[in-house]
Design goal:
- The complex is a heterodimer.
- Chain A is built from eight helices and no strands.
- By secondary structure, chain A is mainly α.
- The radius of gyration of chain B is 20 Å and the shape is flat.
- Classes of the chains: A mainly alpha, B mainly alpha.
Chain lengths: ~230, ~230
């Protein structure tokens, strides 16, 4: 079964795979998560706002982003942003945007739409009485949100936010199409150089499976811990 | 956009990787999801393993595995036959996306069945129905109607995810836009067209499903949400 397999290629290159590739993937995941949750929360507040136009803009953004595939968004950003940038400042040549910056911005903007929906569900799950109590105490909108609603909403939604982050971690693999050396990109470079696709991709699949499965089991445990008994 | 480019683009759109994968996912997912609610411990464990396997590996990596690794594992003649198929990337993409989506469908089906009151299956047993009859005549008809809304978003997901097939060379919506760009350098037009097409598919499917949802609503039940799965 493994007759034609040569796992030596992994022994030779694992340092490159993990220190160059996995580091990039994890860095991008964490930064996109933080950025996405912050922007997503702002979007959620916008969607729930009483200002009709504001909630309409936010809803259109979220629904628009959610209806296009991530691959397409990555392309949009990578190929079009240099041109748009050039058009904005009137430069005759496209502005080069670095691979990391480009993919980070892409993921923050894209994931924010998904984090927004989670945060919106979280905010809506807080009972009205909480908001009213805050108002009765004379809190302003932002005090109310910052001290009462968001901390509770965030706490309730932590498991789902983390699950979404695991999905994000998996999605980062898509940037390898831009020849970026994330974990999959690094594996592909070596696989194509040495002609060892089968071993490499099998290894990549197993690594992802082990990491994501352990993370999701942790999340499940956390979910049991933070669940609020009502 | 030139006429030839437009025709190429449409040809790409009808290569319905997503649709075929969806049919496969519906069948497989329904079976696995149902199995996960049976009393048999082993069946449940196998079902859970199936779902975890396909949910914890990125779709792109799964595509690579199906394309590069699986043919190596098959016995010689079958493996080389598969490798020499003219539309191999297409078949691989459908199978891969089908399995990937089936795990998500299975999760929804299980959630739908579990959301029914336990009394339903008890009543079935009390009526003298066998477990199979209870599932076929009592539980599944209700569960499938309940999970229509989450299944709609899964359907939209499978269409969106079909764009990942690009990586193994299927000329599909996104890929088509890309090859057109190399062909004609009409970057903006090609990308806008692909994006608009995805948005259009989305709007059409959403409205269609809303109509179906209204027609098939189970009387006496308020809408029950499906499993909360993060995803795209």
């Amino acid at each position: 079964m493994f007759g034609n397999f040569d796992f030596d290629v992994i022994a030779r290159t694992w340092k490159y795979l993990f220190f160059t590739g996995m580091t990039f993937t994890v860095e991008l995941t964490l930064m996109a998560m933080v950025g996405g949750i912050i922007f997503g929360t702002i979007l959620a507040l916008g969607r729930l706002s009483h200002f009709k136009w504001l909630s309409m803009i936010c809803a259109t953004y979220v629904n628009g982003i959610r209806s296009v595939p991530l691959v397409l968004v990555i392309f949009w950003f990578y190929f079009l942003v240099p041109y748009i940038g050039a058009w904005v400042i009137g430069s005759p040549t496209p502005i080069p945007v670095g691979a990391f910056t480009s993919s980070l911005v892409t993921f923050i903007l894209f994931e924010a739409a998904y984090y927004c929906e989670i945060m919106r569900a979280g905010i809506q799950s807080i009972s009205r009485g909480q908001v009213m109590a805050g108002q009765a105490l004379g809190m302003t909108y932002f005090q109310n949100m910052g001290h009462i609603v968001l901390p509770q909403a965030f706490r309730n939604m932590i498991p789902i936010l983390l699950t979404q982050t695991i999905v994000l971690f998996q999605d980062v693999s898509l940037v390898s199409i831009l020849s970026i050396t994330d974990f999959v990109g690094a594996a592909r470079k070596i696989a194509e150089r040495d002609g060892r696709q089968a071993e490499m991709y099998l290894f990549v699949g197993i690594v992802y499976f082990v990491i994501c499965l352990s993370l999701s089991m942790l999340v499940k445990q956390l979910q049991r811990r933070v669940a609020i008994v009502r | 956009m030139t006429r030839e480019a437009r025709r190429q683009f449409l040809r790409g759109a009808v290569q319905a990787v997503g649709l075929l994968a969806w049919i496969m996912a519906l069948i497989l997912g329904s079976i696995v999801g149902t199995v996960r609610t049976t009393p048999s411990k082993w069946a449940v464990r196998i079902g859970n393993g199936y779902v975890e396997l396909f949910r914890n590996i990125p779709l792109l990596v799964q595509m690579y595995v199906w394309y590069f690794v699986i043919p190596e594992f098959l016995p010689g003649p079958i493996g080389s036959y598969i490798k020499s198929m003219p539309n191999e990337p297409f078949v691989t993409a459908v199978i891969c996306l089908g399995f990937f989506t089936s795990a998500r469908v299975a999760e929804q089906v299980r959630a739908g069945i579990n959301s029914l009151p336990r009394g339903q299956s008890m009543a079935g047993t009390a009526m003298g129905l066998t477990p199979t009859q209870t599932y076929m005549k009592v539980i599944l008809p209700q569960a499938f109607r309940i999970i229509i809304p989450p299944m709609t978003s899964e359907f939209l997901n499978v269409i969106k995810n079909s764009s990942v097939a690009l990586y193994i060379g299927v000329m599909e919506l996104t890929a088509q836009a890309r090859s057109m760009q190399e062909f004609s350098f009409q970057v903006f037009e090609a990308f806008s067209a692909a994006t608009l097409l995805y948005v259009a598919i989305n709007v059409i499917v959403l409205n269609l499903m809303r109509f179906i949802e209204n027609r098939t609503r189970v009387p006496g039940l308020i809408a029950v949400g499906g499993a909360k799965i993060a995803g795209h």
